[in-house]
Amino acid sequence: MKKRLLTGIQSSGTLHIGNYFGAIKPFLEISEDYDSMLMVADYHALTSLRDPAAMRANIMHVVKDYLALGVNPSQVVIFKQSDVPAHTELAWIFNCLVTVPFLQQAHAYKDKVAKGLEANAGLFTYPMLMAADILLYDTDVVPVGADQKQHIEYAREAAMKFNNAFGTTFKEPQELIMESIATIPGTDGKKMSKSYGNTIPLFGTKDEIASAVMGIVTDSTGDFPHHVHAIHKLFQADGDLIPLYEEHKGKYKHLKEALIEDIERIIAPMREIRTHITDADVKTVLEEGVLRARAQADAKMQVVRERVGVSLA
Ligand code: ADP
Ligand code: TRP
Which fold has domain 194-274? Predict the structure, then answer.
């Protein structure tokens, strides 16, 4: 029997190349070797998105993106978190097992508080919903970017706490992080993230991509544009880049144009495929996916309810 792999992506915006290289590409590379599931984390997105039209549009976008990038729905179960109520139900049970100080250690929550922003209770308990996503399906491996490592640790803690309290029920999952490209830098050299406004859109038009690349911050004192190179080596073997960067030392504009062409070469074919994927295709994929997800989640929840004692059967 193949091991179970599951990953999730929030439907909170459009994909950028950090998502692609940090999460989706590693997922594509290994998903065939596993019994794989891909979940749209729409309830996680609700911690920061309060616009129903945008929510619907984002869900459509994210599924289209994954299909265009080559995820095959007959091989990978693609489903939406909110379609399987067991996720929020199990998250509640985990919330009852962990302490407030434990959740206060979560980076996502701490960052918000440090910025003086008000964190909602959903954001505070976010790691327990994510633990439920993972543990419901006896997941062995969770491919994610380095920023999500702590969340997988939380999932292991939740499994351990439940198992200790009620008997062994959940597997402890492992994160899978591709160390070499663990954190993709953005146009300012910091981690690429939609919350920092430093992204290069994955399915943007050529013009949008070009304008993001032209905006990459370069150091006017040196003649090697490190931030350009850091992104460039995702699209072209470094062995080929070094001579190019040597030859065009200090010519930032030329090197950025070369990067735009290399990005375009890889992304244009996928962008073309994406234009043919319809909303109806997305609905069909999610309807089929949820049947497979729900069957497993429901079976697991039956055991969980018996273990905690709320089931009288
Ligand atoms: P963002 O930081 O833009 O909000 P998300 O938190 O929605 O991105 O991340 C979705 C997935 O993409 C996660 O698995 C995350 O680890 C990965 N990811 C996001 N940004 C990067 C990055 N700069 N480098 C590597 N992986 C990333
Ligand atoms: N928190 C993850 C992120 O922001 C998304 C996510 C939700 C997830 N549930 C998951 C990732 C389960 C892996 C497994 O990227």
Answer: Tyrosyl-Transfer RNA Synthetase (1.10.240)
